[in-house]
Design brief:
Layout (H helix, E strand, L loop, with lengths): L1 H31 L4 E7 L5 E7 L23 H8 L7 H7 L3 E3 L14 H7 L5 E3 L1 H6 L5 H14 L2 H15 L6
Parallel strand pairs: 3-4
Antiparallel strand pairs: 1-2
């Protein structure tokens, strides 16, 4: 049931938000002429690596100028990037990852390989029993305010207790966060 929901939700998103996706792509391209998409190796279900898709929100070669995580005011984030991050539009190309089967609409956000060091072997195995998601429990409840430890705890909790109804609740909470009513 979850996979069917994921496919239908991803197709619906592409259909309904197609003009928005096109507008974001044009804005990014006009900003500096660089690539519209950003690809990065991430860890999926079972510990398998895949290439995540995002709209590029940072300057060209940003990964050479800093680490894999960013904070508010990071100088590598472009003006268009600030807007698409604040509105979560940068994440929308991941519906393609959902259609490919790399990701789900809801699940723990996919880690970069370097984050393996933040987990015990058992935590890493357990966290990757489910597909990673475009949104997850940590994003729905804490947005980007969650500490690494809180995020890990919430991701493992999701992997242990995932259900269709939990996914629906996470989606609703995510929309509240995006439109600014979720608070912390």
């Amino acid at each position: 049931m979850k996979r069917i929901f994921d496919i239908l939700a991803a197709l619906f998103t592409l259909l309904v938000l197609g003009p928005v996706l096109l507008g974001v792509a044009v804005a990014i391209k006009r900003q500096d002429g660089g690539p519209v998409m950003f690809r990065q190796r991430r860890i999926g279900r079972g510990g398998h690596e895949f290439s995540i898709l995002k709209f590029r929100s940072m300057v060209l070669n940003a990964e050479k100028l800093g680490g894999y995580s960013t904070a508010d005011g990071d100088p590598r984030i472009t003006p268009v990037g600030r807007f698409i991050r604040r509105t979560s539009l940068d994440e929308l190309p991941q519906v393609i990852n959902v259609l490919r089967g790399d990701m789900s609409i809801v699940g723990p956000r996919p880690d970069v390989p370097a984050q393996r060091a933040d987990y015990t072997a058992e935590e890493w195995r357990e966290r990757h029993l489910v597909r990673p998601g475009i949104t997850g429990l940590a994003q729905a409840t804490r947005r980007s305010e969650a500490t690494a430890e809180e995020r890990k705890r919430l991701d493992i909790h999701y992997a242990r207790h995932a259900s269709f109804w939990m996914d629906m609740r996470i989606i609703a909470l995510t929309f509240r966060q995006i439109i600014g009513k979720g608070g912390n």
